[in-house]
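so my prof wants the structure for this chain in the C-alpha cells format not the other one, which i didnt know existed until like an hour ago. anyway here's the sequence
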Amino acid sequence: MVNRVFLVGRLGRDPEQRFTSSGTAVTNFSLATDERWKDQSGERQTRTEWHQIVVWGRLAEICNQYLNKGKLVFIEGRLQTREWDDRDGNKRRTTEVVASEMRMLGSRTEEQGFRESEPAVEAGAQAEGSGSQGEVEISDDDIPF
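here's what i got, hopefully its the right format
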C-alpha cells in the first residue's frame, strides 16, 4: 500500500506556525494547484484545487521562515484525515497533506524581486572583468535553474 502525494503549486496564504506543548513546531498553509484542459468546444478551462498542508519539526520552521503567499513550491508527503467535534458538537472531518519534503521553485528573480537598477549588460560586464586571462567567472546566481 502506498500513501504518497506530490504537488507543485503556489501558496494561497502566508504560513502560520505554532508550537505543541512539547515545543515541536507545526506550520500550516494552503497550496493551490491548477488543472488545465480544453473543453468540447475547444475553449481553455482551468480548475484550481486547494490543498491544506501541514509540516512538522525543523521543516516547519524552514517553511515558516522562507515561504510566503504566492511562492511556487514542490511538496511531497502523505494524505491524512482528521476528525473532531466542533463547538456545536458536530462531527467535522478534514483531509490534509502532511509534508515530508519541500522544495522552493521559481527563478531567482521571482524570489528576490526584479531590480531595474542592475541591467543585464552591467552584470555581464562585471562578470567578464572579474575572471583571469579572459575567462568568465560564473556564480550560482548566473545559472537559470
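also thought this was worth mentioning. The longest helix spans residues 120-130.
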